[in-house]
Amino acid sequence: TAEWWDEQYKSGENGEGVPDHFIAMETAALTPGTALDLGCGAGIMALMLAAKGWRVLGLDWSAEAVRLGNSAAQSRGVTARFEVGDATRWQPRERYDLVISTYALPGGAATAAVLRTARNALAPGGTLLVLEWHRDMAAVWGFSPEELSIPEDIAAALPGLAIERCERVEVDSPFPDPQQPEQVRIQRAAIAIVRARKPAEK
């Protein structure tokens, strides 16, 4: 719930968030314009994009995360702003050249709703990037399989977009198990990554 996440951010339990594995690389060839970060948390990805010249709006349902994001944007002097909203129901007031969602899909039917919001928020010719923990990690981390995704399901929920990348990739886990001996503590984590583009208007 939003209240639970508020407490996580207030207590510092959320730490620094998940490091960027692919957003910087996948956006390097894009001309900075307007960007939307759905489920932005405290704004790690949004602030990174803003530092590269993007004009970013971050949306999250945690008021505390939004407060932290706006404070960071102000202190860094970058063009990013953050607002509270539920990405399953939120309606964009403009269209964006880039929409991202990183490790923020809620699972089940709500995931389809967030992806619909993302699709509707894209400007013609715009790029959508979705990173999510792959369903293979459910058993490893004790989640229900319905909470996580596979890239094929994400792509299937994006009708009308051209799918440019749809694959499972592995990275070092940002959540090593402290109960494991140090020499085996760093485990691999699987990510579902989807990159899609909205056709340009003719």
Report on this model:
The protein is an alpha/beta fold and 202 residues long. 31% of the residues lie in helices and 28% in strands. The chain contains seven helices and seven strands, in the order H-H-E-H-E-H-E-E-H-E-H-H-E-E. Strands 3-2-1-4-5-7-6 form a seven-stranded mixed beta sheet. Helix 3 (44-51) links the parallel strand 1 and strand 2 (55-60). Helix 1 packs across helix 4 (63-76). The longest helix has 14 residues, at 63-76. The radius of gyration is 16 Å and the shape is globular. It starts with a helix and ends in a 5-residue tail after the last strand. The model has no long low-confidence stretch (mean pLDDT 88).
Write the layout of secondary structure elements.
Layout: H1 2-11, H2 23-27, E1 34-38, H3 44-51, E2 55-60, H4 63-76, E3 80-84, E4 96-102, H5 108-121, E5 122-133, H6 137-141, H7 151-156, E6 162-172, E7 188-197
Parallel strand pairs: 1-2, 1-4, 2-3, 4-5
Antiparallel strand pairs: 5-7, 6-7
Helix pairs in contact: 1-4
What is the ordering of alpha helices and beta strands? HHEHEHEEHEHHEE
Uncertain spans: none
Q: Describe the sheet with the most strands.
A: 7 strands, mixed
Strand fraction equals 25-35%
First-last Cα distance? 42 Å
Return the structural class: alpha/beta
Shape label: globular
